[in-house]
Design a protein that fits this description.
By secondary structure, the protein is of the alpha+beta class. The protein has three helices and 20 strands.
Length: about 350
């Protein structure tokens, strides 16, 4: 029984082999020996889309992060101990240089100034009398010198009294924006107390660091671009105004400062900024990134020349907005293939499909 099954199985396998061979022969005999030629003879032209190579501006940049600070910023303290009699501080308000921000009680100092001015007037009158007597020869040199010394001491005492009175006023050293204050009229303050802060926000300075490898390419006057999460989509333009004289040994970087015009007050001290330092700008030929074919360390594109594909070796550079910088035997305006690249070969016949907008 087992033998019969083996014989039947072998017969079925042989029959299937014969049937498959006959079917394959029939299919091969029905197929044409050559593909259909195009009208002019040869293989059908391959339809491809092209984009012309064009000139584009590229920039060598260094990316960094920085922090904003006011070009001029101070914390204001009273010059002497006293009790607050008047406050002229509105947080966030702009003040002019010399504006009075704080005044302390000054009754005693004003009285001292009046006394010093009276003493000065007496000393000046005494000196004038001695001067008149000296012109008529009715006094001695010692008397006029004593009167002059008394006058000088009286002037010094008047100046000290005036300075003591001036110290009871706190004035803005420059125009800027005042910050918060925790003081109130009647409060006793000392020179250790912070009255408020004052920031000149007409310009903002941004501090950041860059690698030491770019030291030779940086100098005051180079432009920078800055962006902040606080102002999405906005780019602030600035310029380097200071370069540190030392490289940090731990990070191998050098500190830079850039100044940015802040006329609209959009930037405030302490903001985190993304900084892009432009080292160089240049015009270079660019092609779409999708036109590039990479093979190991080599890169090439296929250009269209007289209706045929021509392989052009290129050296790549920066990329931007879907375009990549290339250099090599490629000229501006040359049509570069961007579709069907897996089917394109050197010398292949081409026909244009719709041209792709760059």
């Amino acid at each position: 029984m087992r033998l019969i099954r083996i014989v039947i199985g072998a017969a079925l396998i042989a029959a299937a082999a014969v049937f498959g061979f006959d079917s394959t022969s029939a299919l091969l005999s029905a197929a044409p020996e050559n593909p259909a030629p195009r009208a002019g003879g040869g293989q059908a032209a391959l339809a491809v889309q092209t984009v012309p190579a064009s000139m584009m501006t590229f920039a060598d940049t260094v990316e960094a992060v920085g922090t904003t600070r006011a070009v001029r910023a101070v914390e204001l303290h009273p010059a002497t101990t006293g009790r607050v009699s008047a406050l002229h501080i509105i947080p966030g308000a702009e003040v002019r240089a010399g504006a009075v921000l704080l005044r302390l009680e000054d009754a005693a100092e004003r009285a001292a100034l009046k006394s010093a001015e009276a003493t000065l007037a007496e000393a000046r009158a005494a000196y004038d009398r001695q001067a008149r007597l000296d012109s008529s020869g009715s006094t001695t040199g010692a008397a006029i010198e004593a009167a002059q010394a008394t006058l000088l001491r009286a002037e010094a005492e008047r100046d000290m009294a005036q300075a003591a009175l001036d110290d009871l006023e706190l004035r803005a050293p420059f125009a800027g924006v005042v910050g918060f204050t925790d003081l109130a009229p009647g409060q006793l303050v000392t020179p250790a107390d912070i009255v408020t802060s004052l920031d000149d926000l007409s310009r903002i300075e941004v501090g950041f660091r860059v690698p030491e490898r770019v030291i030779a390419r940086i100098a005051p006057g180079l432009g920078v671009s800055l962006v902040s999460a606080a102002w999405p989509g906005r780019v602030f333009d600035g310029m380097i105004n200071a370069v540190d004289t030392r490289v940090d040994q731990a990070t191998r970087s050098i500190a830079l400062r850039a100044v940015v015009d802040n006329g609209d007050g959009a930037m405030v001290p302490g903001m985190f900024m993304e900084v892009s330092l432009v080292l160089d700008r240049r015009q270079a030929l660019a092609v779409p990134e999708r036109a590039l074919i990479i093979s190991g360390t080599q890169a090439h594109v296929f250009a269209v020349q007289d209706g045929r594909a021509r392989r052009v070796e290129v050296v790549t550079g920066q990329s931007r907005d879907g375009l990549i910088e290339v250099s090599g035997a490629l000229e501006e305006g040359t049509a570069v293939i961007v579709s069907n690249l897996h089917r394109v070969t050197e010398g292949a016949d081409l026909r244009p499909a719709e041209e792709v907008a760059q």
